[in-house]
Amino acid sequence: MSWQSFFFFFLTELGIIYIQASVCAAGDSAAYHRSSAYGDDVVIVAAYRTPLCKSKRGGFKDTYADDLLAPVLKALIEKTNLSPSEVGDIVVGTVLAPGSQRASECRMAAFYAGFPETVPIRTVNRQCSSGLQAVADVAAAIKAGIYDIGIGAGLESMTANPMAWEGSVNPRPRVKTMAQAQNCPLPMGVTSENVAQHFSVTRQEQDQAAVESHRKAAAATASGKFREEIIPVATKIFDPKTGDEKPITISVDDGIRPNASVSDQGKLKPVFKKDGTTTAGNSSQVSDGAGAVLLMKRSVAMQKGLPILGVFRFAIFWTRVFYYIQIKLG
Fold first, then answer.
1. pLDDT at residue 33 is higher than 70
2. Do residues 320 and 16 make contact, with C-beta atoms less than 8 angstroms apart?
3. With a threshold of 0.70, does the pTM exceed it?
4. Pick from 293, 218, 221: which is nearest to 259 by CA?
5. 305 near 80, Cβ under 8 Å?
6. Long-range contact list for 271-277, CB < 8 A, 24+ apart?
7. DSSP string spanning 6-65?
8. Residue 220: helix, strand or coil by DSSP?
9. In angstroms, rounded to a whole number, what is the distance separating the alpha carbons of residues 193 and 187?
10. CA 15 to chain centre
């Protein structure tokens, strides 16, 4: 399995956070075993995920959130031969579920996975970058010397917790007179339309990109490229017509459409804007699933003989791009 350098950007009120994880080819981790001067680097030594399934219709439609997270947490420990008690903290990025409920579900998942009650766990919500923020929080804590080993994870059950605004928006006049406040509950589909319009991304280009994405994902699945990172999940599924419960093991993503075509995509209607370009076919699906990575100091990883899959880099810098995007997308 090949690893390449990957970069993440996400917006904050302070500017843009830039995160780089420099990664190496599997089997070439020796290249990252530099001198002891780099022993306090924060490194990733393991990363696993569940399959990603379509919400309400996919393989996890009857699976609770804690049963999604537990298998990947357990895999991190079992596949690295790490004692669960060595983990200093578990941080889980999650968006849609009520905060206190999801925190309890994550705690339950940690117990299912074999972690003792001495290992704390918490959730973090930074919308679409919540899982990434969880990893960043753990990396920062390791860098600060709070602990040497931690887990960053992400969890979502969009079957149980669909995207919706619960309750009413604050009726105060102040909200109605401030465009930025009004835009806070702006649907992502509308944001997609704004970006496409500003950068002149055509419907044809979006449909073509979607088809290529499905083609590549199907090819990667067929060749086994995802096999090492996916943890099969034993669960159950209910037939709403008969009421029968059937045990099932989910081991592959069920949202990939290998036969997708540009002509079929062109038949779909825009969802968020009458004359728009964003459709159900060229948008990301709503999914159920979980993933987690194990981070630690380089010196600890070397001592334990664990492979170093990536080195975590983190920086915050000011840029006009934040202001520009905020204005244009609002």
1. no
2. no
3. yes
4. 218
5. no
6. 271/189, 272/187, 272/189, 272/190, 272/192, 272/193, 273/190, 273/193, 276/193, 276/196, 277/193, 277/196, 277/201, 277/202, 277/203, 277/206
7. EEEEEEETTEEEEEEEEE--TT-GGGG---GGGTT-EEEEEEEEPPPEETTTSTTTT--H
8. helix
9. 10
10. 21
Phi-psi region of 67 (alpha: psi -120 to 50; beta: other; left: phi over 0): alpha
Q: Where are the beta strands (DSSP E) in 115-266?
A: 121-124, 149-157, 233-238, 245-250
CA nearest to 312, candidates 56, 77, 32, 26: 32
Pairing between strand 287-297 and 310-317? unpaired
Name 317's bridge partners. Answer: 16
Contact 150, 138 (CB under 8 A): yes
* Tokens 């925190």 belong to residue: 103
Q: What is the 8-class DSSP label of residue 270?
A: P
How many angstroms separate the Cα of 170 from the Cα of each of 164, 176, 185, 255?
A: 16, 9, 11, 37
Strands 15-23 and 42-49, bridge-based pairing: unpaired
* Contact assessment for residue 26 and residue 1, using Cβ atoms and an 8 Å cutoff: yes
pLDDT in tens, 262-321: 999 999 999 999 999 999 999 989 999 999 999 999 999 999 999 999 998 765 544 433
Catalogue the E-assigned strands of the chain: 6-12, 15-23, 42-49, 53-54, 89-93, 121-124, 149-157, 233-238, 245-250, 287-297, 310-317
Strand partners for 167: none
Query: What average pLDDT does this structure show over 200-228?
Result: 96
Calpha distance 226→218 (Å, rounded): 10
- Count of all residues that appear for the chain in the document: 330
Contact 329, 195 (CB under 8 A): yes
Q: What are phi and psi of 246, to 5 degrees?
A: -125, 125
Q: Quick one: the chain helix, strand, coil %, rounded to 5? A: 35, 25, 40
